[in-house]
Amino acid sequence: MAFSLNYQKIDDILAKLSSDYDIYAPVRLVGEGKFSATDRIQYDKITRAEQIVYNEKSDFSPREIISPITQTLFYFTENEFIENLPESRSIIIFARPCDINAFKRLDKIFLENGDFADSYYKSRRDKVHFALLDCKGGWESCFCVSMGTNKTSDYSLAVNFNSKTVEIEVNDSSFNKYFNDIKQCSYQYNFVKKNKIEVELPEIRPEQIEKISDLQIWQEYGQRCKSCGSCTAVCPSCSCFTTRDISYKENKKAGERRRVWASCLHPDFTEMAGGHSYRETAAARIRFRTLHKIYDYKKRFDTVNMCVGCGRCTDTCTQLISFATLLNRLSQEIKKLSVLEEGVEYVSKSSSS
Amino acid sequence: MCQNQVAAKNHLKPIAYQVEQIIRQTAQEYIFRITCSEEVKPGQFYEISLPKVGEAPISVSSITANYLEFTIRKVGKLTNYTFQLKAGDTIFMRGPYGNNFPLEKFKGGNLIVLAGGTGFCAVNSLLEYYYQNYNQLKSLYFLTGFRNQASILYQNRLAAYQAKFTQTIYCLDEEVKAGFKQGFVTDYLKELPLNKLQDYYLVIVGPQPMMDAALKECKQLNLALEKIWFSLERRMSCGIGKCGHCKIGDKYVCVDGPVFNYSAIKNLID
Amino acid sequence: MEKKNIDIDVSKLTSNCFRQSKVKGECMLQMRVPGAVIKAEHLKYAVEIAEKWGNGDFHLGTRQTLSIPGIKYEDVSAVNKFLQSYIKGVEVDTCGVEMEVDSNGYATIGARNIMACIGNKHCLKANVNTTELARKLEKQIFPSPYHIKIGISGCPNDCAKGHFNDFGIIGLVKPEYDYERCIGCGKCVEACQGHATRVLTLTEDKKISKDSCCCVGCGECIVACPTGAWRRNPQEFYRVTIGGRAGKQYPRMGKMFLNFVTEEVLLKMLANWESFSADVLNHKPVYIHGGHLIDRAGYYNFKDKILAGVDLNPEAEVADHIYWAETEYRANIHVK
Predict the structure, then answer these.
(1) What is the pLDDT of residues A7-40, one digit of tens each?
(2) How far is the C-alpha of A310 from the C-alpha of A318, rounded, in Å?
(3) CB contacts < 8 A (A, C)
(4) Each residue's pLDDT tens digit, A108-159
């Protein structure tokens, strides 16, 4: 069922939903962007429709709602661990197909990998309902179609904001009650079918890894990359964290254990006690991140790739590295390897099939 | 929505144990004996967890019915704090984590264990297991090396192993001492009667440069690489496959390792 | 000396923005470009003047003017007539200067061209829109016969060299720290150490501590931060340096007068410059560097007069004293 509403009506519904859910959507922080006179768009709780930035891609992904950047796991007194696991309210997240698909990637890590579910992630993730935001055709740096993440069926609502009206498709009957007496319409969500850029994913055979890691392309990108880690901070499918303990200044005997997001682009990511690090160059770190996003994860879980093609890493990179271009170039280099060294004809396979 | 129903337990929550005894090994390495009767297999590790300090993965160096031992080297913030503990103190831990040495596979075979420096800590539980169950192997060759006299670990066990195992070779990198050969432990692999051993398994544990050198030596000696097991050490925050620090290629050292057969990691680049 | 029979009032020529040339009978036109940005179409005037009345050369003026050398004295009035639409286009239409533009060229050279870097329309480092500010100031200072040199920079790098102007204006930001968003990677600390004043440190808890005393407001921490833990405060601020100058006798770099003032405070303060100058100079607008004027009046007197009627914003700081430091090619200048 689909409904057409004006902004007054949608605000009434958001008010009703707010009593049952925490509602998160991309909002605009005017003038708070990285550069002067630019805005920042990131996720926050909303109560009114006009807060929702529906016609731009957010700078940061919605993952921070479920996996906060800084999260307190335990409080301690001298010799006691107290869990910080409050019951989460139900959550609605306004998100696009790429981001919803990214949550599936995070689920694999936080709920399945190592055969344990992460209680903190799970406590919030179990409460999530998605409201699908219309992509309005997408943006120049998107490559969701190449990654097969342009579609999803995991949504309760699908929403298309226009200047005066809002069209909503209800895909979950438990939400019907919020739409009594609302005018029906024939709206159906439009999944993006084609992006401005296409990414050809490399076909990698495990025994090629050593040769691939020796490719000159990593050195070249390593020269350009400043290891700032912005690409991992905006990524909806990055999941790494570091645990840190602190003691309170006022009472040294009490403190807390937190986890904070970590970045594989930062030089200390692999640093062991004593100082030894396994990936000391930016080149090695870019190679690691790239292969994780388009090879390792898929190989491990025998599933889709981790990268969802949202293009935020490209959007945020101050050194102007396009992840899509990097992937396309990598594919070409690997084709050359395959043809030259194995003597076999490279056969392209569609990644989105 | 996720359907996983395993979440009842918070796996990041450590449990309190009691420090039974602290035994000084070297100036830098102490053995912490912890009262614990959990079932642990040789090769596994625990996350040692000190409130307000942090957590670190430490391999179990000795397993008995009533206690576990961890041989801890003073190298970082957490291990420095650990050295302030006294017998009777509480210590928090999570575990045991990771896989273990393939005892079933080794059964009835000839086993060669090559340990460098603190790598000894990670294989000592394995050596103790065979010390108790020596009939499970045809023969056991144990080679270990330390930098100098001051860094020798498990002095009393070295003698016991020498008395029991088929052959032992102990060496020091930098100093001369009776009962120890001089040089790197990897140099002495070729002194073993490798051609006589039809069927053997090799366990290599130590600092990364030592393992790299050992692998090179194995290749030169034309050893069957698929019969080599390594135990890897990486930075970890969680120990349960979430934090991502220990990932190499498609493997997580914490859950897929720390014990890896060569064939599982030969195509992994750090 | 060329033997030419020339009779010209040089000071009138100068205040009309033509500079006397060593080549007898020739002068150089200096066209104002407030904030160093004009529409490309306005460049055509410079080209046409250079080709038609000049010697074909074109000089980028050291104060960011468009300068045309080799203009004959007899052509000055023709050039001025042609300049009318440039002056109207740039001064009136672009900067909103309230003045009648006639065919007699620039009315005064008193308030000099306002220099500026490209600012935040383009530059990654800039904290303010220097072009817009320059245009607002042009509206305020032009055409005043009193001498004033202003240089505006978008950030504390001061690429426009405001430190060597009577007034150096520098765009600042007050970064806001979001503790929860910080992952303790230390990238801001590195940036502050490398590019700025080293006011950031990584604490034992792997969060950031800041010694606000010496933050120069450059915003490097914001650009360096991967997670957006450093937020750009949308309120723009300015630093003002005073008394900078070049010169043969005792050049000196300007000193900080105001820190973290708003645009409103800045504009109101500078609106007092003309009356301050008139006061000190007995209403005779002679050419004198702003720094000398401040020296003549005394800093405390200057401070009172220039800040008269100005309500400072809460963040604003004002220099109690100024300790000048000249390069004294002529010694003992402060001994009278």
Answers:
(1) 999 999 999 999 999 999 999 999 999 999 999 9
(2) 17
(3) 83
(4) 999 999 989 999 999 999 999 999 999 989 999 999 999 999 999 999 999 9
Interhelix angle A216-224/A323-342, nearest 10 degrees? 160
Judge whether B246 is annotated as a binding position.
yes
Contact C116, C132 (CB under 8 A): no
**CA-CA-CA-CA torsion sign (C14, C19, C23, C26):** negative
- Reference A97, options A192, A170, A167; nearest CA is A192
Question: Looking at the 3D structure of chain B, how many domains does it have?
Answer: 2
Pairing label, strands A157-161, A165-170? antiparallel
Q: For CA atoms A298, A328, A238, A190, give the dihedral sign.
A: negative
- Which A positions 233-292 lie with beta carbon below 8 A of chain B? 239-247, 252, 255, 257, 259, 262, 264, 269-274, 276, 278-279, 284, 287-288, 291-292
Instruction: Please indicate, yes or no, if residue B149 is contained in any of the structural domains.
Output: yes
Contacts of B95 (CB under 8 A, 6+ apart): B40, B44, B45, B46, B47, B239
Chain B residues lying within 8 Å of A279, measured CB to CB: 270
Q: What is the pLDDT of residue A340?
A: 67
Which amino acid is present at A213? S
Q: Which residue has the tokens 């698929």?
A: B226
On the CB side of A167, how many CA atoms lie within 13 Å of its CA? 12
Which of A30, A36, A235 is most worth mutating to test chain C (most C CB atoms within 10 A of its CB)?
A36
Contact A114 B12 (CB under 8 A): no
Q: Which residues of chain A have pLDDT under 70?
A: 340-353
Q: Is B2 annotated as a binding residue?
A: no
CB contact under 8 A, C223 and A30: no
**Other Cβ atoms closer than 10 A to B148:** 14
Number of C-beta neighbours around residue B147 at 10 A: 13
Tell me the torsion sign for CA atoms C67, C72, C77, C78: negative
Judge whether C282 lies within some domain. Answer: yes
Is the omega angle on the peptide bond into residue B96 within 30 degrees of 0, that is, cis?
yes
State phi, psi for A264 to the nearest 5 degrees.
-70, -5
> pLDDT tens-digit profile of C142-192?
999 999 999 999 999 999 999 999 999 999 999 999 999 999 999 999 999
Ordered by start, the domain boundaries in chain A are: 2-185, 206-342
- Residue B112 sits in the same domain as residue B90: no
**B171 shares its domain with B199:** yes
Is B36 marked as binding a ligand?
no
The separation between CA B160 and the C-alpha centre of its own chain, rounded to angstroms, equals: 19
- Convert the pLDDT of each residue in B12-59 to its tens digit: 999 999 999 999 998 889 999 999 999 999 999 999 999 989 999 999
Show which of B82, B97, B112 is a domain's final residue: B97
Please tell me the distance in Å from C180's CA to the nearest CA on chain A.
5
C63, C94, C125 - which closes a domain:
C94
Cis omega (within 30 of 0) on the bond before B102?
A: no
User: ipTM of this model?
Assistant: 0.93
Nearest to C180 among A29, A30, A69 (CB): A69
Cα nearest neighbour of B54 on chain A: A245
Could you give the maximum distance between any two Cα atoms of chain A, in Å? 68
Give the model's pLDDT for residue B7: 43
Phi first, then psi: give them for residue C264, nearest 5 degrees: -60, -45
**First-to-last CA distance in chain C?**
40
Measured CA to CA in angstroms, residue A221 lies from A200, A237, A238 at distances of 19, 22, 20
Domain span at residue B144 reads 103-231
**Neighbours, chain B (3 or more CB pairs < 8 A):** A
What confidence score (pLDDT) does residue A349 get?
A: 45
From chain B, pick out residues whose CB is under 8 angstroms from the CB of A241.
237-238, 242-244
* CA-based nearest distance B187→chain A, Å: 24
What residues form DSSP beta bridges with B97?
Answer: B45
Asked if B83 and B129 sit in the same domain, the reply is: no
